[in-house]
TrEMBL record:
<keyword id="KW-0472">Membrane</keyword>
<keyword id="KW-1133">Transmembrane helix</keyword>
<protein>
    <recommendedName>
        <fullName>DUF3592 domain-containing protein</fullName>
    </recommendedName>
</protein>
<feature type="transmembrane region" description="Helical">
    <location>
        <begin position="119"/>
        <end position="140"/>
    </location>
</feature>
<feature type="transmembrane region" description="Helical">
    <location>
        <begin position="7"/>
        <end position="28"/>
    </location>
</feature>
<dbReference type="Pfam" id="PF12158">
    <property type="entry name" value="DUF3592"/>
</dbReference>
<feature type="domain" description="DUF3592">
    <location>
        <begin position="40"/>
        <end position="111"/>
    </location>
</feature>
<keyword id="KW-0812">Transmembrane</keyword>
<dbReference type="InterPro" id="IPR021994">
    <property type="entry name" value="DUF3592"/>
</dbReference>
Length: 235
């Protein structure tokens, strides 16, 4: 379970960071472009039809004509294709173009300039949050395990049962948890101890066995069920 969550955490975090960097670069490029660009009035002269892959839909791209500072007629395509189309034929739009390369132009509105930067930044933020959450869970769990291995009080507990933890789901699968019963190291009263999530059902190997549980004497709910004799090293 730990290795899977760690890999998921790293992959999602790296994807998120890559998207955030891409979004930041797009925002920066737009800022640099706007600083040197010239405004010009444009008119939508056509709507180019684009058919998606496997005929999964048709979108429309606005074709815009404008006149640059040298009096030359220029034509550009909107950076966004949409259905329904963003514009109609004859619509007037504000165009930003590079005076050194007038064909390099964008429609000067929020969607035209910030859709892609916003999309990459938004996706990057979501992926980074998901990946970071997985990593925080793993780091916190590992710190707890290390602390309990050093300072936890060992308790011999009887194996009770294994159950499927439906509160956790990864790729449509649910992990198992082992439940054991043993004394509270402080009071001696019987307590139930629950293992971390695992991806195999060890019922057959655990029937009739004692399990070692490392317990925080002050907080019995903070414990670690050692399944290494059955499952090997837990990570």
């Amino acid at each position: 379970m730990g290795k899977i969550m760690t890999w998921i955490g790293y992959v999602f975090t790296l994807i998120g960071l890559a998207f955030l960097v891409t979004g930041g670069w797009l925002f920066y490029s737009d800022h640099q472009f706007a600083a040197r660009a010239i405004h010009a009035p444009g008119v939508v002269t056509d709507l180019a039809r684009k058919r998606g892959h496997d005929d999964d839909g048709t979108t429309f791209t606005a074709i815009v004509q404008f006149t640059d500072a040298n009096g030359q007629s220029q034509e550009m395509a909107d950076s966004i294709s949409a259905n329904p189309p963003r514009f109609s034929k004859g619509d007037k739009v504000d165009v930003l173009y590079d005076p050194q390369a007038p064909s390099s132009a964008v429609i000067n509105d929020g969607w035209g300039r910030y859709f892609l930067p916003g999309l990459f930044s938004g996706l990057g933020f979501v992926f980074a949050i998901i990946g970071g959450t997985f990593l925080v869970i793993i780091i916190t769990r590992n710190r707890k395990r290390i602390w309990l291995q050093r300072f936890g009080r060992p308790v011999d507990a009887d194996f009770l049962h294994v159950y499927l933890d439906r509160s956790v789901e990864i790729n449509g699968a649910h992990p198992f948890r082992v439940v054991a019963q043993g004394p509270d190291p402080q009071t001696g009263q019987l307590q139930r101890y629950q293992s971390e999530p695992i991806w195999v059902d060890p019922t057959a190997q655990l029937e009739g066995r004692k399990l070692k549980v490392l317990v925080d004497p002050q907080k019995p709910a903070r414990h670690f069920v050692d399944l290494s004799p059955v499952l090997g090293k837990q990570t």
